Amino acid sequence: MIEMQDVWKEYPNGTSALNGISVHIQKGEFVYVVGPSGAGKSTFIKLMYREVRPTKGHIFVNGFNIERLKDRKIPLLRRSIGVVFQDFKLLPKLTAAENVAFALEVIGLSQRQIRRRVEDVLTQVGLEDKMDMLPSQLSGGEQQRVAVARSLANNPAVIIADEPTGNLDPDTSWGIMRLFQRINDRGTTIVMATHNRDIVNSLRRRVIAIEQGIIVRDEQKGLYGYDE
Ligand code: ADP
């Protein structure tokens, strides 16, 4: 499902972000990626959807060989991955429904099929009554629900989330986590970088800790492990 073999990343300015990462994540797993700021978590996550390219090493995601992937095949890879960000990244001039529809790149879907899919995923996140609202008319938690719905639109095998609760209060964060749990229960792999110690310590799943670009801990049902 996701395989990294001795992956290194040095940015063009000479910063070494990852220094030899090897990891295997199976279909259906729920994985937290933890570690101090600057440890390499975002880089680790961005490599999976080829937002950044490795300097060295091998990466396979959903059957795609990331280093060999031709640029024109990147949309195919990204259709197999849903991505959720800390700052939601919704298009401000589009409604919730339009934001989700925009992500439905599946060639050959009719307008009616698109509408049905949009309604389906927005209902899954509990926003069936707010489909025509603009992001500015929604709370932070609701905006993140739209982003989760958008990530589900193409029925991806994996959802990758970079600090998805970073801008949300604790109650709202738990609402998003319940959604991820439900999505994971249906078989979708979830990889989530987080600083949310309460969530990691309460909803115990696999924990991969990265420090200074290497994996220092990889435990099933692990703990957050930092005092911050
Ligand atoms: P984290 O997500 O754990 O905070 P990052 O992956 O964002 O860590 O960053 C790892 C290291 O790489 C840090 O030293 C950071 O400053 C550096 N870095 C991240 N992105 C870039 C970039 N585009 N160019 C140069 N250095 C970067």
UniProtKB/TrEMBL annotation:
What the entry lists under Pfam families is as follows: ABC_tran
**UniProt keyword list:** ATP-binding, Cell cycle, Cell division, Cell membrane, Membrane, Nucleotide-binding, Transport
Membrane topology of the entry:
Peripheral membrane protein
What Gene Ontology molecular function terms does this protein carry? ATP binding; ATP hydrolysis activity; transmembrane transporter activity
Q: Which Gene3D superfamilies match?
A: P-loop containing nucleotide triphosphate hydrolases
Where along the sequence do coiled-coil regions lie? none
Which SUPFAM superfamilies does the protein's record reference?
Answer: P-loop containing nucleoside triphosphate hydrolases
Q: According to its record, what are the GO cellular component terms?
A: plasma membrane
Known SMART domains for this protein? AAA
Localization per Swiss-Prot or TrEMBL: Cell membrane
GO BP terms, alphabetized: cell division
Say which domain of life the source belongs to. Bacteria
Q: Quaternary form?
A: Homodimer. Forms a membrane-associated complex with FtsX.
Q: What does this protein do?
A: Part of the ABC transporter FtsEX involved in cellular division.
Q: Which family does it belong to?
A: Belongs to the ABC transporter superfamily.
Kindly provide the name given to this protein in its UniProt entry: Cell division ATP-binding protein FtsE
Source organism of this protein record:
Alicyclobacillus acidoterrestris (strain ATCC 49025 / DSM 3922 / CIP 106132 / NCIMB 13137 / GD3B)
